[in-house]
Design goal:
- This protein is of the alpha/beta class.
- The chain is about 40% helix and about 25% strand.
- It has helices at about 5-30, 40-45, 70-80, 95-100, 115-120, 160-170, 180-190, 200-210, 235-250, 255-260, 265, 270-275; strands at about 45-50, 55, 60, 65-70, 85-90, 105-110, 120-125, 130-140, 155, 175-180, 195-200, 215-225, 230.
- A five-stranded mixed β-sheet has the order 10-9-11-8-12. It has a three-stranded parallel β-sheet with strand order 5-1-6.
- It starts with a helix and ends in an 8-residue tail after the last helix.
- It is found in: Cell envelope.
- It comes from Streptococcus viridans.
């Protein structure tokens, strides 16, 4: 009996240590997903930016392995104005928000359309582009009206506004979903679907580079905006981005970025003022 009491004390002490350790581990795990401060970003020397690697001309990897595109121009400038280098991370449409939530990146610039649903997950900065949905299909069987999609197969990319729009407004349309844009376009080229829907800015560009295809529906649904996003509650970085976008607007930065990255693709098929948002002000 004399030994029982000391053993109980030791046992209780051991349990307390386990509890403290567990709490410490939980705290570390929780803080590990918290967004980095600007000071931490500067100390690391890198601004981690989520972008597309296969969505030309907005975000893509060229033949030399370098990131190029309209989104990349903004990413490069934001990093420069912070005094660090950009570190680009390729993402799929479906995991753009998750990369912010889990602190894998500091900013998402992956052609991210602002929606009410996404606002619950991330915080959006001022917009830098306007967009609506478009539908591209073969010229010999061009789709010019949504009604023509009834009984047909429409290709979409998971996690995009096109997927949400058609599921909500046109459940009669059969959707064929892919994780990556490149796979979705290949499915259209292979004839696995009758048409493909995503941002009109992208399908217009793709149709210009792929003869035999036409954007029969150039604007579908309500016009939206595209904006940078940060982790929910990361006001410090959000304020920096907003201030930078306003400053860049005074320098006509986004029209210059359009001329460099988008005009070579669109040519006369689109006008800069129809797509570009300068200084965060939608006109």
């Amino acid at each position: 009996m004399k030994f029982i009491k000391p053993i109980l004390v030791l046992f209780t002490f051991a349990l307390a240590l386990l509890f403290i350790t567990a709490c410490g581990s939980s705290k570390t795990s929780s803080s590990g997903s918290k967004a980095r401060t600007i000071e931490e970003i500067k100390k690391s020397g890198e601004l981690r930016i989520a972008v597309f690697g296969d969505k030309k001309p907005f975000g893509y990897v060229d033949n030399d392995g370098s990131y190029q595109g309209y989104d990349i121009e903004l990413g490069n400038q934001l990093a420069k104005d912070l005094g660090v280098k950009p570190k680009y991370v390729s993402v799929d449409a479906a995991n753009r928000a998750e990369y912010l939530i889990s602190n894998k990146v500091d900013i998402t610039l992956a052609n991210f359309t602002v929606t009410d649903e996404r606002k619950k997950q991330v915080d959006f900065a001022l917009p830098y582009m306007k967009v609506s949905l478009g539908v591209v299909s073969p010229k010999d069987k061009v789709i010019t009206d949504v009604k023509q999609l009834e009984g047909k197969t429409l290709i979409v990319t998971k996690g995009t506004t096109a997927e949400t729009y058609f599921e909500k407004n046109h459940p009669e349309v059969k959707l064929q979903k892919y994780d990556q844009y490149s796979d979705a376009y290949q499915a259209l080229l292979d004839g696995r679907g009758d048409a493909f829907s995503t941002d009109n800015t992208e399908v217009l560009a793709w149709a210009l580079e792929n003869k035999g295809y036409e954007v029969g529906i150039t604007s579908l649904g309500d016009p939206d905006t595209i904006a940078p996003a940060v982790q929910k509650g990361n006001k410090e970085l959000l304020d920096f981005i907003n201030d930078d976008i306003k400053k860049l607007g005074k320098e006509n930065f986004f029209h210059k970025a359009y001329e460099k990255t988008l005009h070579p693709t669109y040519g006369d098929a689109a006008k800069a003022d129809d797509l570009v948002v300068e200084g965060g002000e939608v006109k």
